[in-house]
Design brief:
Layout: H1 11-20, H2 27-37, E1 42-45, H3 52-67, E2 76-81, H4 85-98, E3 106-109, H5 115-122, E4 126-131, H6 133-141, E5 152-155, H7 158-163, H8 167-176, E6 182-187, H9 192-201, E7 206-209, E8 220-226, H10 232-240, E9 253-256, H11 260-272, E10 278-280, H12 286-298, E11 303-306, H13 308-311, E12 321-324, H14 331-338, E13 348-354, H15 359-369, E14 374-375, H16 382-387, H17 428-433, H18 443-447, H19 478-484
Parallel strand pairs: 1-6, 1-7, 2-4, 2-5, 3-4, 5-6, 8-13, 8-14, 9-11, 9-12, 10-11, 12-13
Helix pairs in contact: 2-3, 3-4, 14-15
The structure holds adenosine monophosphate.
């Protein structure tokens, strides 16, 4: 087994790794660190979650220490470009951790924050700068920053930067960096445009690849629901409230929509159903996005709805399920999405909702990834639930919902957990549906079937983790509403 000591890293870096508790390098670290330490250019084909940040950061820190160049005025010695604010912040945190004992100055800049502050903080230059391309070019245009001092240039998640329309920015940056710098180029996929970009940026790069292009991780179980667009909300509510079984125990559930508006809509409707969730997307302010991510990381709100752009590059351990509420129209995006689960050696579950008009996307995903998506059955009586007073609709103001249609707690054909024999009586949930106000604080949990309708053997019933807790002091209809979820 290879250890970090075998890769030629310096003592301060090894100590920082020790403090982080990392003992063995991941495959990409093992392959990338030695050639980067030698000063070679690198092309890394890897997704987040593979340890690629340390793969480029650790050897670069050592090279910066060795070159002993001074911090250049209004410039930096190492520039890391990344597509999103979240990823920039994540890399900056890692850089600070890994470089803590090397005495290097680390700064980061992202759009959506004060440009003046960025101008001031970069005036005296920095050793390492992590930036989104747009904000970097803003500062360069204002003559507040230049790239003359760059010794090491990193492009992280290059394919995502292209998807976000940064191609011109990247070409421009390539013209501004010194010719004799080292370039480390990372991308999860290698479409033609990326190959062209690589040949412009890199000189004879060493290529390391940790996941073959567009193949989905083997540890992810992939499932599919064929469901109409107008049924999706009802289905997600039933799944999240564990009234329709899907495999796996819920720990953290990341749900993808195609649009910002769609993400907000799902959050709002889940809220009405008593299921707490947050959204991250481009229309949210940076503090809002950060708060949602923090709550998700800490497990305070275990459901996060995201658009592809916002979720790029974020690394959150413990995502047990990725739900594709809407299928992405680019198959590579599917790979990125489901790659948010099955991190750090864990297993993961990916679920796709496919409506009639998304069949072509599904076909592309299957063709491109070779993935088999096992089809799961819809709940019993599902269409009736959607059309009747299903879980999507809140009760009219001032009224407790009275449902004429029963929602079966355990759908036929759905997998049943070990020991989860029969679901118990629907209890409070259904009582409220029949018009009995369920005002007691405990009504919510009492209403769920105690046996989890789906899941792996030995799984815990976990539906309650996603329900907002409402006390008796809540809305008069609180019980009735939460029961709808
Ligand atoms: P990345 O792909 O760089 O986003 O890293 C994914 C996760 O793996 C991050 O949470 C890192 O802190 C963690 N990580 C990176 N390298 C190692 C390692 N050698 N051992 C254990 N965890 C690591």
């Amino acid at each position: 087994m290879t250890h970090f000591e075998d890769l030629g890293l310096s003592q301060p870096v090894l100590q920082a790794l020790d403090l982080k508790g990392y003992s063995t390098p991941t495959p990409i670290q093992e392959q990338a660190i030695p050639p980067v330490l030698e000063g070679r250019d690198l092309l890394g084909i890897a997704q987040t979650g593979t340890g690629k940040t340390a793969a480029f950061m650790l050897p670069s820190i050592d090279r910066l220490r060795e070159s002993e160049n001074r911090i250049p005025f209004k410039s930096c010695r190492m520039l890391v470009l990344a597509p999103t604010r979240e990823l920039v912040q994540q890399i900056a945190t890692s850089a600070k951790d890994y470089g803590a004992l090397a005495g290097l100055k680390v700064q980061s800049i992202v759009g959506g924050t004060s440009v003046n502050k960025d101008r001031n903080k970069l005036h005296r230059g920095t050793d390492i700068l992590i930036a989104t391309p747009g904000r970097l070019l803003d500062l360069i245009d204002q003559k507040a920053f230049n790239l003359n001092g760059v010794e090491v240039l990193v492009l992280d998640e290059a394919d995502q930067m292209l998807d976000l329309g940064f191609i011109h920015a990247l070409r421009q940056i390539n013209r501004l960096v010194p010719k004799d710098r080292q370039t480390l180029f990372f991308s999860a996929t290698m479409p033609k445009q990326i190959k062209e970009l690589v040949s412009g940026y890199c000189t004879n790069p060493v290529q390391v690849s940790v996941t073959p292009e567009s193949t989905t991780a083997e540890r992810i179980e992939q499932y599919l629901f064929m469901v109409q667009q107008d049924e999706k909300q009802a289905l997600i509510e039933l799944i999240l409230s564990r009234r329709h079984g899907v495999p796996g125990d819920f720990e953290r559930v990341l749900i993808f929509t195609r649009t910002k508006h769609g993400a907000d809509r799902v959050v709002k409707k889940l809220g009405r159903a008593g299921i707490a969730a947050n959204a991250i997307h481009g229309n949210k302010s940076q503090p809002q996005r950060q708060r949602a991510l923090d709550e998700f990381r800490r497990g305070k709100t275990n459901i996060l709805i995201a658009t592809d752009v916002a979720a790029r590059g974020i690394d959150i351990p413990g995502v047990s399920h990725v739900i594709n509420y809407e299928l992405p129209n680019v198959p590579e995006q599917y790979v990125h999405r489901i790659g948010r689960t099955a991190r750090a050696g864990k297993d993961g579950v990916a679920i796709a909702f496919c409506a009639e008009d998304e069949r072509a996307y599904l076909k592309d995903i299957r063709r491109k990834t070779g993935a088999e998506l096992d089809r799961l059955p819809l709940p019993d009586n599902f269409r009736a639930v959607v059309e009747g007073e299903g879980p999507t609709k809140p009760p009219p103001r001032g009224q407790t919902r009275v449902s004429k249609k029963k929602i079966k707690p355990k759908p036929a054909g759905a997998p049943r957990p070990e020991g989860g024999s029969k679901p118990k009586k629907p209890g409070a949930k259904h009582q409220a549906r029949k018009g009995k106000p369920a005002g007691k604080p405990g009504a919510n949990s009492g209403g769920r079937p105690s046996g989890k309708p789906g899941g792996k053997p030995g799984g815990k019933g976990g539906g309650g983790r996603f329900h907002k807790r409402r006390g008796s002091g809540g809305r008069p209809n609180g019980g009735g509403r939460s029961n709808a979820g």
